[in-house]
Amino acid sequence: DQQVKQNSPSLSVQEGRISILNCDYTNSMFDYFLWYKKYPAEGPTFLISISSIKDKNEDGRFTVFLNKSAKHLSLHIVPSQPGDSAVYFCAASEGYQKVTFGTGTKLQVIP
Amino acid sequence: DVKVTQSSRYLVKRTGEKVFLECVQDMDHENMFWYRQDPGLGLRLIYFSYDVKMKEKGDIPEGYSVSREKKERFSLILESASTNQTSMYLCASSLIGGGSNQPQHFGDGTRLSIL
Q: Does the beta carbon of B23 lie under 8 angstroms from any beta carbon of chain A?
């Protein structure tokens, strides 16, 4: 049972435009959400996170929005750059140890 | 900077062999994790450890075991390798509280092929 879902396997966006990556979850006990970015042949790297008590967190060009009632979060990248082309994983945790990852969305930013 | 080092980038083994994947972290992190990444399935947790000699099963522990004799080292063991264990294996570490505001730091992965 996939508790964290990323329904779009891929996304293409023009350079300079906004990229919106979506993530849905089913476990209402998740209390922390994270986004990781992965380049080919490298491990994932942490990008941005949000606590369940907030609805928005911003870090430079990256903003994560959380809609708890809809069990939905999204990552906005503005403006998108070619270097943002990577696979993005949504992740969620319940408690303080185990993290559940989504299946990933491959973002391609076209110059 | 946190460094998580996986002993091999690529590994080819035969069916039935006992396979060891090693992972070392240099930041005194309490938590360590082993995942496998497969197309369309994302990252799936195999085992994790929150202290020396402690281990917890993840979502897909069957066919695997782990060892954590020292805080900095976490080994994944395929007791009798099978072709369905061909995958990318990723090790990660984090401070205690690895979900809540303590992100995991990943190694670059080991691509394991079982022939």
A: no
